[in-house]
Write a structure and sequence with these properties.
The chain is 7% helix and 43% strand. With 230 residues, it is mainly beta. The protein is globular and about 60 Å long.
Length: 230
């Protein structure tokens, strides 16, 4: 059974469902030691942790977003997604480490492992009116490699004297089927959607995933995909 430990302590608005707001409270000392080897600063900051079987071997694996670098004032400076595969006997071995991205104060993040799929979600944490946003990224095993299988983005804008008018737009990318969907929903005009195909040069391994690249470019694979315009 998948288990998600949500500890979004990095955000100004907090959602706390783990003891003392630290996902590492749920990890063994051996697992924490493995993480510390690649990110010595990690134990100093709250972690976002999820557990579940990712590679299909029947053993629980661990996904964790940790801080690998601190500012001179001791605050988190970056974030990294680390995957540890469960081993026979209960130990864990690091399988993947993403590229580092800048820590973001305005976003709130969640991790979940369910049905052998890792989902990383983020959304606006504060100052979200009249505009808010949300994104999610799905990773699956393909040919013994954990790759980005899809991503979803949406933004909502409220207008009018009483913020009674809502406009929501977004896109959904499936890298396995090589299809992208652009959609829009407004209070006055309803829902509209356009679906297009694209060509994928090569899948994106979790080791090359960088959340900052996804945010800047609007999607995660600017060099491997000629994404059609809506």
């Amino acid at each position: 059974m998948a288990k998600t430990i949500t500890t979004t302590c990095f955000a100004v608005l907090l959602t706390i469902s783990a003891s003392a707001c630290r996902g590492d409270d749920q990890l063994s000392s051996e697992t924490l030691s493995s993480i510390k080897k690649v990110c010595p600063e990690a134990p100093r900051h709250p972690m976002l942790v999820a557990t579940g079987d990712l590679n299909g071997d029947g053993l629980p694996d661990v996904a964790a977003i940790v801080c690998c670098k601190s500012t001179e004032y001791g605050e988190p400076e970056d974030e990294v997604l680390i995957i540890l595969y469960g081993q026979q006997g209960g130990s864990y071995k690091i399988a993947y480490r993403s590229e580092a991205w800048f820590w973001g104060k305005r976003r709130e993040m969640e991790l979940e492992i369910k049905s052998k799929v890792l989902v990383l979600s983020e959304h606006c944490a504060y100052n979200c009116n009249p505009e808010s946003w949300a994104s999610s990224y799905k990773f699956k095993m393909r040919h013994n490699e954990l790759i980005l299988a899809g991503e979803d983005h949406s933004s909502t804008f409220l207008s009018g004297k009483d913020l009674e008018f809502e406009e929501t737009s977004g896109n959904s990318v499936n890298y396995l089927t090589q299809k992208v969907s652009y959609w829009k929903k407004t209070t006055s005009q309803g829902y509209a959607e356009k679906r297009l195909a694209f060509k994928l040069k090569a899948p994106l391994s979790l080791s090359n995933f960088n959340l900052e690249t996804c945010i800047i470019n609007g999607f995660c694979m600017p060099t491997s995909v000629s994404m059609p315009k809506q």
